[in-house]
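Every protein is a chain of amino acids, and every chain bends into a shape of its own. Below is the pair of lines this work produces for a single protein:
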Amino acid sequence: MTTQTLSSPEVYQGQFGEFTITQSDRTSVIIYRAGLMVAALSFAIGSGLVLFNNNSIVTALTPLYACFSIALGVSLFTIHIYMALLHRMLQIFWAIGSIASVILVISNTEPLALTVYNQPLTLFGVGFIFVALTGIYFKEAFCFNRLETKVLTLIVPLLLLGHLVGILPVQGESVLLGIWATLFLVFALRKTVQAIPADIGDKSVFTYLKEQRLAKV
């Protein structure tokens, strides 16, 4: 008769005490990264269609954008961010952008991409999705000092605001879009090989902040 022993979970020393990482924690990180990968692939394919002037299938951009948005939403609901207020704000920004996108799709006969491109003021609604995405880039740049996310944190607002006020030439927008799509893919691919505990962070900080919030109630 053999006896099987289950290995106890590894104990980590955090800033405010010890903690362990559960299977649920690991699963949330895997979902977060999978969402980023789907979003990056959708964005890259859509950007490729735009950059190579394949106007014959411009209608394909709308379902690709929908896939990008849904995947980004999944990532935003599974990402680990210490500041609960910032986490909630990014989710709200994503929701505003998604709702604005749906309204534009329903209220216009032309594809969503053409509506946004020809009517830059629509970015005041749709653009909130990219504000949320930039929040992820900033978080990753701050936590892991990733070069690609540092560049993306600057490129995204530069491209969107530049198009909004009309100061960027078409060629300049194309270059920035190409860099954005490429670095987004690089970011998503690099996340797949990163150690899972790094994305979970110091759980003792989450516990401490939660206790502080409860103490103020």
In short: The longest strand covers residues 11-14. Confidence is low (pLDDT under 50) at residues 1-6. Residues 40 and 185 are 5 Å apart (CA to CA). Residues 23-51 form the longest helix (29 residues).
